[in-house]
Design goal:
Elements lengths: L4 H13 L2 H8 L3 H15 L4 E4 L2 E4 L1 H27 L5 E7 L1 H6 L1 H11 L3 E7 L5 H7 L4 E4 L10 E10 L1 E5 L17 E5 L5 H9 L9 E4 L2 H10 L2 E5 L1 H5 L7 E3 L8 E9 L6 H15 L4
Parallel strand pairs: 3-4, 3-5, 8-9, 8-10
Antiparallel strand pairs: 1-2, 5-12, 6-12, 7-10, 7-11
Helix pairs in contact: 1-2, 1-3, 1-4, 2-3, 6-11
């Protein structure tokens, strides 16, 4: 039995809101109408999809599978509608992109500016997420593509990484930091460090020091927030691993300095990730190319 579009929307709304009342409000339906739709879907599929709990509603294992499939189908239907409209000469549609805070800050603005000049009617939604959550959202169809600055270790099957910029992370401190002229990691093991947890595992961070014969720093914290890292660099005597474009950006160039290290640091592979079996609508692909061009224009 095939699920109808309205049934899929109802099930996905229940999965997202975990409340029949909130899902009904989101869909502009009455509580009874939504309940009837879910019951009809359960009867047609022959399995229970939802159960009530003290916290609202929970999806059964059947409901979880059906909701995930429905979410992917609805996302692809939306893309198909956008693609057909754009092929007919329409200049409207919606693009949903996932990006880390740092990529959203220095890679997306020039791409959005360039894209807006050619496609002012296209709505762009940028979802700022930690990179451990984005592969699943891409696979489910919620995101059109990802903007990343490293190769994802758990990249889902059927997804491809289009790399537009390679380089390495750099050690960054505030200008005037006591270690600002250091040239080796061995000189820096006694300082407090911040490493980007979404890009580098702690073992990889420690290994960068061990390879030089130096002990790993004792004072280390992980941060997935680019703006928290920036604040700590400015207010505390800390050193951070960051992508080079942050240091070179006009907002921070007068406040931050790249330490002139000769030792190798973790690699960067900036680009986009897409589902390889899905054809993006023309405007979405045009925006993705604008993002790749912006990445190529940055000093990694």
């Amino acid at each position: 039995m095939l699920m109808k579009t309205g049934q899929m929307r109802a099930l996905v709304a229940c999965a997202q809101h975990r409340s029949l009342r909130a899902a009904a409000e989101h869909l502009a339906l009455s509580h009874s109408a939504l309940t009837k739709t879910i019951r009809e879907l359960e009867a047609e599929l022959g399995v229970p999809l939802l159960v009530r709990s003290s916290r609202g509603i929970e999806l059964t294992r059947y409901g979880q599978v059906a909701a995930a499939r429905a979410q992917t189908i609805l996302a692809d239907l939306r893309r198909a509608g956008d693609e057909l409209a754009q092929l007919r000469g329409g200049r409207h549609g919606r693009i949903t992109v996932g990006a880390s805070a740092s990529m959203a800050f220095f890679a997306l603005p020039p791409a959005i500016t360039r894209f807006r000049e050619k496609q002012p009617g296209i709505e762009i939604e940028v979802i700022e997420l930690s990179m451990d959550r984005t592969p699943a959202l891409l696979e489910s169809g919620v995101l059109d593509f990802l903007v990343v600055h490293h190769e994802l270790p758990d990249l889902p099957a059927g997804c491809g990484h289009d790399i537009a910029g390679r380089g390495s992370l750099v050690a960054v401190a505030r200008r005037g930091h006591p270690a600002s002229s250091s040239t080796t990691l061995a000189d820096l093991s006694g300082h407090a460090w911040i490493y980007p947890g979404q890009l580098v595992k702690r073992a990889e961070f420690d290994q960068a020091f061990v390879r030089t014969g130096a002990p790993p720093p004792a004072q280390v914290m992980s941060s997935q927030s680019a703006f928290l890292t920036l604040r700590l660099l400015m207010d505390a005597e800390m050193i951070a691993l960051m992508p080079r474009p942050f240091v070179r950006h006009a907002l921070f160039a007068g406040h931050l300095a790249e330490l002139p290290l000769a030792d190798p640091l973790p690699a960067i592979a900036a680009g986009t990730v897409t589902r390889t079996g899905i054809c993006l609508p023309p405007a979405t692909e045009q925006f993705r190319q604008a993002v790749l061009d912006a990445i190529r224009g940055l000093d990694w």
